[in-house]
Amino acid sequence: MKTQVCIIGGGPSGLLLSQLLHLQGIETVVLEKHSREYVLARIRAGVLEQGFAALMREAQCGERMDREGEIHHGFFIADGGRLQRVDLHRFSGGKSVVVYGQTELTRDLYEARDRMQGVVIHNVEDVQLHDLATDRPHVTYRAGDEIVRVDCEYVVGADGFHGVSRKSIPKDVLREYERVYPFGWLGVLSRTKPVSPELIYARHDRGFALCSLRSQVLSRYYIQVSLSDKVEDWPDNAFWAELKRRLPAEVGERLVTGPSIEKSIAPLRSFVAEPMRWGRLFLAGDAAHIVPPTGARGLNSAASDIHYLYHAMVAHYQKGDDSGLDGYSARALARVWKAQRFSWWMTTLLHTFPDAIAYERKLQETDLAYLFSSEAAQRSLAENYVGLPF
Ligand code: FAD
Ligand code: PHB
After folding, report:
1. Long-range contacts (CB closer than 8 Å, 24 or more residues apart) made by 306-311
2. What is the pLDDT of residue 42?
């Protein structure tokens, strides 16, 4: 098989890039390890920044997002009994975010790929990247007993944190920066009316909690749990009781509970790999960087990589201009590190760290008190949450 750009990973990063490039007449093949059903069963991000939404429209995939996604102008931070609103719209110069699930967005991207007869190959095994330091790279994978070879001009590693692409960069070139947090998030999806029309991020001595939503009839809630906890340790009634305890009483009283339709635990991690380009390989999204979900930056950071890579590839193929490809790693990383800083800050502000000393707990209290006493601090929060410019 032959193509111009071989994309590893059929998550949001890979599908979005493939769709954008196809619209510009650039050929791609997407190789995905799992079935489509498996990819679409993952419940992950829910908050999109405006830049992401604009990219979905440019990819001709924004119609359902614009119809069904909810525009949010603010969110709440709860601290024990207090509930304070962060006015994103006011403090970001009129910007907002779109609440639209990653599952729905991925479904829209798959449907667009089908409409355009884009090549997305599922259930590929043992993907390997070859000759990345030459101008004729190729990728191989196994389909049953057969080894298939894809010859290409560029390889994009959009295969998430556990993928193979990043591992194809030689160890003496790759630098990795990592922080692992001493807790995870237990997430529950339930067909219940959300407790609040806007998200609530709750700090509590028992641990962080988040009230989010997918629609007015579908709620998404998270609670901070210990790393040793298993989903089986948290039957629905225990989850609801713990969530309620961590919310201000007036909010907890309004909480509508019901059976969970999905329940999973995600560990929290900050991670960056540098460089994001090696030879003919470009990394994008979770393959190159991970943030704890507290600032809702993960998928949005993936989108900014795709924005830079898409424009760089179009300049290469349409104008013979390689400056975007050459500058990709530095440009993408500059924004990635700002998302890292913000996600680390929001995580530190709102979680209960098991080993925190009294001094650190005082600083956390003071950080929150400062946030709500300073318009400048709220402006900074809003600017980062709605997404820094690409
Ligand atoms: P992925 O979605 O991981 O996709 C990579 C794909 O590559 C997968 O389909 C995988 O099967 C495939 N793959 C892996 N290995 C191989 C291989 N060897 N060969 C071929 N294919 C392979 N982000 C936000 O912006 N806002 C939020 O509100 C938010 N909330 C989150 C909540 C939770 C609980 C979690 C876990 C994450 C959240 N995120 C959020 C982060 C967001 O989900 C990720 O950043 C996003 O999925 C990254 O997309 P991606 O396409 O780069 O990687
Ligand atoms: C979600 O709805 O899944 C969600 C929202 C905001 C976050 C993280 C996750 O910060």
Report:
1. 306/13, 306/16, 306/17, 306/20, 306/55, 307/51, 307/55, 307/390, 308/332, 308/390, 309/17, 309/156, 309/282, 309/284, 310/17, 310/20, 310/21
2. 87
pLDDT tens-digit series, residues 229-254: 999 999 999 999 999 999 999 999 99
Choose among 332, 252, 339: nearest CA to 294: 339
- pLDDT for residue 226 is more than 90: yes
In the predicted model, what is the mean pLDDT of residues 340-349? 98
- pLDDT tens-place string over residues 168-204: 999 999 999 999 999 999 999 999 999 999 999 999 9
The preferred substitution site among 42, 43, 47 for testing ligand 2, maximizing ligand atoms within 8 Å of CB, is 47
Between CA 343 and CA 279 the distance in angstroms is: 30
Q: With H, G, I as helix, E, B as strand and everything else as coil, classify residue 378.
A: helix
Cα–Cα distance between 270 and 289 in angstroms, integer?
7
Is the distance from CB of 284 to CB of 328 less than 8 angstroms?
no
Bridge partners (DSSP) of residue 130 are 138
Give phi and psi for 343, each to the nearest 5: -65, -40
Distance 271 CA to ligand 1 centre (A): 14
Paired tokens of 66? 């614009």
pTM for this entry: 0.96
Residue bearing the CA closest to ligand 1, atom 40: 45
CA of 246 to the centre of ligand 1 (A): 28
Name the one residue in this structure whose structure tokens are 């700090």: 203
